Amino acid sequence: MEFIKPKVKICCISSVEEATLAIQYGASAIGLVSEMPSGPGVISDELAFKIAATIPANIASFLLTSKQNALDIIEQQRYVGANTLQIVDRLTHGNYKDLREALPGINLVQVIHVNNDECITEALKVAPDVDAILLDSGNQNLPVKLLGGTGRAHDWSISRRIVELVNKPVFLAGGLNPENVSGAVEQVRPHGLDICSGVRTDNKLDERKLEAFFQQVNSFR
């Protein structure tokens, strides 16, 4: 399997300045976290709109949404204006076709939370309907759902199997940091990496951690 250096998405962006800093270091995607039941990095849709408007056209702007109704997601994306939707929970009303028809040109990324082998079946089921899959370490079955930002790695052997089986780009998230990212890339071989807390100190983007993270990623050619 041919391997190309993974793209990097810096998530939990909370200001125009953070977005600019992440892009300067080499991010090809920016993550804007809207209302979630738990987890870090949540910003208002108003602030997400302001940040998305400043992101260059060649950089992907991901709107992370926990909404499960396609109509609500459509309304939210039209307001924020991001060019990519990251759906962190399962759709319960409407479907991907509804999103496609209402939001032409908007990329759809479905999060799969890696807890056991059942997530492989889930990834294979949704892959034909989305542009990419993002593997994270959340848990939708808890009383308060964890839908991302856990700072915790999952079983990368399962993630590697998904990368091998699905015919769509796969992003790896969950507990990545400058110390473990090389091992993650070597084991999983993802299309992209998604990081939040691993490049932050006191909830602020840390230039030293950013630099260290990209040094490791850029060692892959």
UniProtKB/TrEMBL annotation:
GO BP: any one term: L-tryptophan biosynthetic process
Entry's family note: Belongs to the TrpF family.
Reactions catalysed: N-(5-phospho-beta-D-ribosyl)anthranilate = 1-(2-carboxyphenylamino)-1-deoxy-D-ribulose 5-phosphate
Domain N-(5'phosphoribosyl) anthranilate isomerase (PRAI) as annotated: residue spans: 9-216
Gene3D superfamilies: Aldolase class I
Keyword set, alphabetical order: Amino-acid biosynthesis, Aromatic amino acid biosynthesis, Isomerase, Tryptophan biosynthesis
Enzyme Commission designation: 5.3.1.24
Pathway the protein contributes to: Amino-acid biosynthesis; L-tryptophan biosynthesis; L-tryptophan from chorismate: step 3/5
Amino-acid biosynthesis recorded as keyword: yes
InterPro entries named among the record's database cross-references: Aldolase_TIM, PRAI_dom, RibuloseP-bd_barrel, TrpF_fam
Protein's name according to its UniProt entry: N-(5'-phosphoribosyl)anthranilate isomerase
GO molecular function annotation: phosphoribosylanthranilate isomerase activity
